[in-house]
Amino acid sequence: MRIRIIDAFTDRPFGGNPAAVCLLDDTDTWPDEAWMQQVAAEMHLADTAFAHPLSDGGEADWALRWFTPEVETNLCGHATLATAYAMYRDRGGPSTIRFASRSGLLLAHTADDGTITLDFPAAPATEIATPDGLATALGITPRATFSTGALGDLIALLDDEAAVRSITPDLGAVARIARRDGIRGTVVTASAADPGGGYDFVSRFFAPADGIPEDPVTGSAHTALAPLWSELLGRDDLTGLQASARGGLVRASIHGDRVHITGHAVVVLDGVLTVSR
Description:
single chain, alpha+beta, Diaminopimelate Epimerase, Chain A, domain 1, 2 domains, 18-stranded mixed beta sheet
C-alpha cells in the first residue's frame, strides 16, 4: 500500500504539520480499525489519514478518517489538506473533493497552483469560567477562556503574542484536565504584536491526552479561532500564525456557518507500506 508523508500549511519541506496519507483506491470499505490505529502509532505523527472512494452516488466522493498515535479523531484540518494534495498530485489540475467524515461533509478545493482551501463547519467559541487547574497547568492566567462546543477544544486567550510564544505548559497536568473535562486540545492564542507583520493572531495547540504534546499547525482549531478573532477584530478574512517550532500560516475566512481554511503542502516522503491490512 502506498503511503506518503506530506507537510501541510507550508510551502517548504520540514515546515508546517506533517501528516501520513493512505489512499485506498482499490476498495470501498475500510481496513480493520485496529490496523489503522497501529499504522498511525507507527507513523508517530499528529495524524494519519485514510481515505477510500465512495461508489454509492451520494453527496460525498471519498470517505475520510484520521488517527492520532493513540485515538481516532473527529476532525483534522492538516491531514485533510494533505489528503487533498495527494489527490492533486495523482490527478493534476484544479478540483473539488467532497469527503464524508465524522464531522459531516467536508470540501477541499484545489487551485491550479496546488493551493488548497478547506470548507469546514465553523465552531463558535463561547466564553466560560476558566477550568480548575488550567492556570497552574499553563503557568499563566488566561485573560478569558472559551469552549468550542462539538469541536472539543478549549481556547485560552492570553494578553500578548510574547506570552503565547514563551509558554511552557505542564503537559501532564494539561492531559489530566483534558481527560477530566472531555477536552480534545488546549489552544492558547493572542493578537499579533505587529498588525502589519503578515498575520493577525498567533496560537499554539496542546493535546497530550491524545498523544500530541504540541501540534505544529492545527487546521481544525482555526474553525474556532477564525470566528473568535473575526469577532474580536471586526473582519472576516484573517491569517493566523501557529507559533510552534515548525510553524505555519493559516489563511481563514468566515462564510456564514462555514470557515474556509487555505494553505499549501509539500510531499516529503513517498513509499510503500508493506504490512498487510
